[in-house]
From TrEMBL, chain A:
Protein name: Acetyl-CoA carboxylase biotin carboxyl carrier protein subunit
A Pfam family annotated for this UniProt entry: Biotin_lipoyl
Top-rank lineage group of the source organism: Bacteria
Source taxonomy: Bacteria, Pseudomonadati, Pseudomonadota, Alphaproteobacteria, Hyphomicrobiales
Record domain Lipoyl-binding: where: 1-72
CDD domains xref list: biotinyl_domain
Gene3D superfamilies registered for this protein in UniProt: 2.40.50.100
Keywords per UniProt: Biotin
UniProt source species: Camelimonas fluminis
Automatic annotation (TrEMBL), chain B:
Pfam families documented for this protein: Carboxyl_trans
Name under which the protein is recorded: Acyl-CoA carboxylase subunit beta
Keywords assigned by UniProt, alphabetized: Ligase
Leader sequence residues: none
Source lineage: Bacteria, Pseudomonadati, Pseudomonadota, Alphaproteobacteria, Hyphomicrobiales
Length: 74, 520
């Protein structure tokens, strides 16, 4: 099993963290919701996996391409 | 007479032997290496794609006269005409088992002639690519190379006349990538195909960089990240099926009508789920692909570039059996913002649909173009112009349906309102059409106002509420910016009825110029 970076495609602010460490996600399932461009934009799982670590907190500012969580691919 | 006929029979036997010698059963040994890396040989690929017995080979017996590459059956490229789903096409298939599918002098001449035949006859050109660039063994000298060849000139002139398709089925660096770069649709096999102007060895020699084949030109890079190819699939068979599917939406050439199929899905079928898919709350995302799936004929949707620039969705589909092109903002990705990649993707799709007579159906939910330094670094100002340029030149019917947001220049680029003389400009009750987001415009224009207020947040909200009162679908309809506000459930029926009334092509008189200059 390999660790996969979950990256944000957009800069914004963390609005809500949806997934927790240990959660099993399918590809595209939301890991967290960012607020950007006056919208709630999900950062989705890049593949099926288990959440290993969440690297940001609520209200944090996120840069485009920033790693916000680590998944363990399954 | 008898002697002459015996002679002819003997000569015919020689010719037949020559044909047999280049066929797969006679080349088991030479094909062994190829079979280790691919599922199908060059000839088997043609046999799978085309109707049995329909392939008429061109230049089967060409063979270099001498030199190290004299044993090059068909000179490494199998070419001819064949039927795909009942229609004649020009097909070429590079043979990797012959000097790695490299391009020899005669193979190149054959390829050019096939393209010329496709152009003259008005046949789609299908390129099954698995090879390299110039065959060094055939001559690395000026006498040979200075002639170059007319293939690229032919491809450029054929663009928009006949559909051109490339299936990248293995090695694709150099020549094959340049061929595919001119195609309307390119499919790659994941883990097997490569694309790029030069492979790792040449990169190493030229720049000193170490990079693997897949890192440099695999589908994950060239399909998903760069959008050079349109689709990544799991096998050669899937790639060939994708070629067939792509062609099924298009006519043989630009002067033929797009192929209709018998409709089995009722034209007036209601899309009950459409009332629930799009949240009225403009902050909430949803998957616009579900909207397309419901509106289009059941099972007809074929998405182009599904893994690239997912913030816009471009799909061929059918409405009452008629091929159309859907262009839809995807709120699920980047809020549906228009980025440079999204604009390029849409611009190319518009050009393909317009060239081959497919009406454009815009599903609009656009917060605008991407902003900020990162967006500017992509030269968005020019890429956005490209999308607009292509729509401005289109002569096919076009209909816009505003599902929710229609903000700013993005609304224009998505054919909103009267921007590009749509055949119909429709809106759902959830439409919110204005120059920019309400919150954004309050923050831009009234920041000083609310910040100087004793209760800034309350004042900001008051301003937002006041502005929002003027932004709704009744105002849009009241000012005749849209033709009709429709029941979302009836979107399919409305589109089918309206498209049935629109002429297949419209006059688009231009000033007396020779050409337009695309913003590229």
């Amino acid at each position: 099993m390999s660790a996969i970076d979950v990256k944000s495609e957009i800069s914004g602010r963390v609005f809500e963290i949806v997934a927790r460490p240990g959660d099993r996600l399918a590809e595209d399932d939301p890991v967290m919701i960012l607020e950007a461009m006056k919208m709630e934009i999900a950062v989705g799982a890049p593949c099926n996996g288990v959440v290993k670590q969440i690297l940001v907190g609520n209200e944090d500012s996120i840069a485009e391409g920033q790693v916000v969580a680590i998944l363990e691919a399954v | 007479m008898e002697a002459a006929s015996a002679d002819a029979s003997a000569l015919l036997a020689i010719v037949n032997d020559a044909h047999r010698a280049i066929d797969d059963p006679a080349r088991t040994e030479q094909l062994a290496r190829h079979r280790q890396r691919a599922a199908l040989t060059a000839r088997e690929r043609i046999a799978y794609l085309c109707e049995p017995g329909s392939f008429q080979e061109l230049g089967a017996l060409v063979r270099p006269r001498g030199g190290p590459d004299r044993d090059a059956p068909a000179d490494g490229v199998i070419a001819g005409t064949a039927k795909i789903d009942g229609r004649w096409c020009a097909v070429l298939s590079q043979d990797f088992s012959v000097f790695g599918g490299s391009i020899g002098e005669l193979g190149s001449a054959k390829t050019s002639r096939l393209a010329h035949m496709a152009s003259v006859r008005g046949l789609p050109l299908v390129m099954l690519l698995d090879g390299g660039g110039h065959r060094i063994q055939g001559g690395q000298n000026s006498r040979h190379f200075a002639k170059a060849g007319p293939f690229f000139h032919e491809l450029a002139r054929m663009s928009g006349w006949v559909p051109m398709v490339a299936a990248m089925l293995g090695a694709g660096f150099a020549g094959p990538t340049n061929y595919a770069g001119m195609a309307d649709f390119v499919v790659m096999v994941r883990g097997q195909s490569t694309m790029g102007l030069a492979g790792p060895a040449l990169v190493k020699a030229g720049t000193g960089e170490d990079v693997t084949v897949q890192e440099l030109g695999g589908a994950e890079v060239q399909v998903d990240r760069h959008g050079l190819a349109d689709l990544g699939v799991g096998s050669e068979i899937e790639a060939l099926d994708a070629v067939r599917r792509f062609l099924s939406f298009l006519p043989g050439n630009a002067r033929e009508p797009a192929p209709l199929v018998a409709a089995t899905d009722p034209a007036d079928r209601l899309g009950e789920a459409l009332l629930d898919i799009v949240p009225a709350n403009t902050r909430r995302a949803y998957d616009v692909r579900k909207v397309i799936d419901i509106v289009a004929d059941a099972g007809s949707v074929f998405e182009i570039k599904p893994t690239f620039a997912g913030n816009i969705v471009t799909s061929f589909a059918r409405l009452d059996g008629r091929p159309v092109g859907f262009i839809a903002n995807q709120p699920k990705r980047l809020g549906g913002m228009l980025t440079s990649d999204a604009c390029d993707k849409a611009a190319h799709f518009i050009a393909v649909c317009d060239a081959f007579g497919l009406p454009l159906v815009y599903l609009v939910d656009v917060p605008g173009f991407s902003i900020g330094p990162a967006a500017e670094r992509t030269v968005l100002g020019r890429h956005s112009a490209k999308m607009i340029h292509e729509l401005g030149h289109a002569t096919v019917p076009r209909i816009s349906v505003v599902l929710r947001k229609g903000y700013g220049l993005g609304y224009f680029a998505m054919c909103g309102g009267r921007s590009f003389d749509s055949d119909a400009s429709l809106a759902w009750p959830t439409a919110e059409i204005c120059a920019m987001s309400v919150e954004g415009s309050v923050d831009v224009a009234y920041r000083k106002d609310y910040e100087s207020h004793p209760e800034p947040q309350r004042r900001r909200q008051e301003l937002i509420d006041a502005m929002r009162a003027d932004i709704n679908v009744l105002e849009a309809a009241g000012g005749f910016g849209v033709d009709a506000v429709i029941d979302p459930r009836r979107t399919r029926a409305e589109l089918i009825t309206l498209l049935a009334q629109a002429p297949a092509r419209r006059a688009n008189p231009l000033p007396p110029k020779y050409r337009s200059i695309a913003p590229i």
